[in-house]
Design brief:
Layout (H helix, E strand, L loop, with lengths): L1 H16 L1 H4 L3 E9 L2 E8 L18 E7 L9 E4 L17 H5 L9 H17 L15 E3 H4 L6 E10 L4 E9 L3 E9 L5 E10 L3 E7 L2 E9 L2 E8 L3 H15 L10 H4 L3 E3 L2 H16 L3 H6 E2 L1 H16 L1
Antiparallel strand pairs: 1-2, 2-3, 3-4, 5-9, 6-7, 6-12, 7-8, 8-9, 9-13, 10-11, 10-14, 11-12
Length: 324
């Protein structure tokens, strides 16, 4: 059974690689991760779009995608990721989200051939550029999905580094994590070293930057409070020597997006676009523990808290300088 399965995946890869001879503007090469898992690196030449995209839109670089065929293929869908930023053209698809179903225009079915998906990518990009409405949230994050660290490191982002997460305040237990902040999302990965020098990082938490409810910084220990709605919160407690840098990055992103760092409580449930965590029970426990901690905070913690008044004063100062 295993031999037949391996042979099936090998034949699927071979069919995809035939595009190197059949298509002028598409080139691929494969990389075997483990027994029955492959990456297909897809390069789409920028010249393919020259005569197809109007409205003074131009793509000035080749587009790179990664196609991941898992060991459960075709029962489980493959994954498709974009590694080339197109944010300057108004679409956000290069942020570790799986865009397979967006390219297909429907849910995965086992009879769909990966070769057909690859051939559909240029048309999908063209549609995105010609109609940018609602393209900020193309694709989806898969909790518990194991990403290739080397692939993630190629994705343009505002922050990408290792941190420590405080997973139990009472015991001070910490866990090594990989933190990634894109122009729209917070991503937290569990780190482990896999086989064949394949570095796996499992996605355990994601939240939109827009869902930040509040921030607190105390030396190298800093806390983000995310809110899905009025009654649903989660706290991310991290330790890193770049805490101040991360908060500055977040403030910059929020400013660029025209978002206050603290969202109005009454409108929160209507405004927040996304939120996900791999362990909802732990989230609730951490939320209760953090609420108790916040209720018993001392004056030093209060002085260290970044609040709305400080942000407003800074904004007013900046506006006054600009007027002068």
């Amino acid at each position: 059974m295993k031999t037949l399965k391996h042979s099936f995946i090998q034949n699927t890869i071979k069919a995809c690689l035939s595009l190197n001879k059949e298509e002028k503007f598409i080139s691929l090469y494969s990389k075997q991760i483990s027994g029955d898992e492959f990456f297909l690196n897809i390069n789409i030449n920028k010249d393919l779009f020259k005569s197809k995209i109007g409205n003074n839109i131009s793509i000035d670089t080749d587009l790179l995608f990664v196609f991941h065929l898992t060991h459960n293929f075709p029962i489980n869908p493959p994954r498709l990721f974009c590694l080339t930023s197109l944010s300057h053209l108004g679409i956000e698809i290069c942020d570790a989200k799986d865009i397979l179903e967006d390219v297909l225009g429907k849910e995965w079915e086992s009879q769909i051939k990966p070769k057909e998906i690859i051939l559909s990518i240029p048309k999908f990009i063209q549609q995105c550029l010609e109609n940018k409405n609602n393209k900020l949230f193309v694709g989806k994050y898969i909790l518990e999905y194991e990403y290739d660290y080397n692939m993630l490191s190629k994705i343009p982002n505002h922050y990408f580094n290792f941190v420590e997460e405080i997973i139990n305040k009472k015991t001070k237990k910490k866990q090594k994590r990989l933190l990634m902040i894109t122009s729209l999302f917070f991503l937290v990965f569990e780190y482990k070293v896999g086989y064949f020098n394949y570095n796996e990082v499992k996605l355990i938490f994601w939240a939109s930057v827009k869902s930040i409810y509040g921030m607190k910084n105390n030396y190298n220990n800093f806390e983000f409070e995310f809110s899905k709605n009025f009654n649903d919160r989660i706290y991310l407690n991290l330790i890193t020597n770049e805490g101040g840098k991360i908060i500055n990055i977040v403030l910059y992103i929020l400013k660029e997006r025209g978002i206050d760092y603290k969202i109005n409580r009454d409108n929160a449930s209507n405004e927040l676009p996304g939120f996900g965590s791999a362990n909802n029970e732990d989230d609730k426990k951490n939320e209760n523990a953090n609420n108790e901690n916040l209720n018993g905070k001392d004056s030093n913690d209060e002085n260290n808290k970044i609040n709305e008044e400080e942000i407003k004063e800074k904004k007013d100062d900046e506006n006054n300088k600009l007027k002068v």
